[in-house]
């Protein structure tokens, strides 16, 4: 009799519905007419611009704790292709009164704290921040902590990557390391942010290691009326190489649906001082649909041709 009761209990447990997190799907299709001139000639194409789809999950654990998770994938939207290209974000974590702890591929503390003000554009304008100054966007193999204390927001990440696996252009972080960022908003229209990052560059898949890298960034943003100002500075040291970057963005709202963005940046490297000028316009039609345009000019200042690139795009978020 007891064996029958035990068997029935086990069967009932296995048949009971499992407790799953609430899932919210989301996505973005962002395509643009892409006009580029690198000095050797101009090209016109249609390009996908950081299109993606993903899922957010949350589950109430009780006692003020919430389980969280997220998948986000880069997608091909301008032509027939592989569809899903890359994992942009993939993390699991726990949040509560102590803050939030997450593990996986996620936005770096450096970008979330200062990079978001230094590189605020849809697609163009990131060249000096990322390609020249070597600053990160997302970061893999990461354990991250975040919390807010009134007007103060703190983020810190620890990267465990002894395998030295190669990362894509959005990361720039190829080894063990850590980052920390703190931002303060003493007024509703003013934020000041400071971030630091240290990276131990282990040998990559090719077995070659580069010098360790240290980064420092400071940025601020202020808005008044329909206008806004973003100003930021970063310093990157890698062995004997050093890059200083200054970027400034001015924004202006026209009515309730239109925003203009004007930017300037200059990087100081050992070999050159490339300069970039940026202009962007964004019109929110409604229903998640936006029309937008961005153009940037880069004066490479190293004997190579200047480059001009313009994107005229249509984006929908859902």
Rg from Cα? 23 Å
Q: How can the largest sheet be summarized?
A: 16 strands, antiparallel, barrel
Order of helices and strands: HEEEEEEHHEEEEEEEEEEE
Helix content: under 10%
CATH architecture: Beta Barrel
Spatial strand sequence of the major β-sheet: 1-3-4-5-6-7-8-9-10-11-12-13-14-15-16-17
Structural class: mainly beta
CATH class: Mainly Beta
CATH topology label? Porin
In terms of DSSP E residues, the strand content is over 45%
Number of strands: 17
| The CATH homologous superfamily | Porin
Measured distance between first and last alpha carbons? 56 Å
Describe the model:
A hairpin with an 8-residue loop joins strand 4 and strand 5. Helices cover 9% and strands 61% of the residues. It has a 16-stranded antiparallel barrel. The chain has a single domain (27-317), classed as Porin (Beta Barrel), CATH 2.40.160. The protein has helices at 2-15, 109-118, 127-132, and strands spanning 22-37, 42-48, 52-62, 65-75, 84-96, 99-107, 138-149, 152-159, 176-187, 190-200, 213-224, 227-238, 241-254, 258-268, 275-286, 289-299, 307-317. With 318 residues, the chain is mostly beta strands. The N and C termini lie far apart (56 Å). The radius of gyration is 23 Å and the shape is globular.
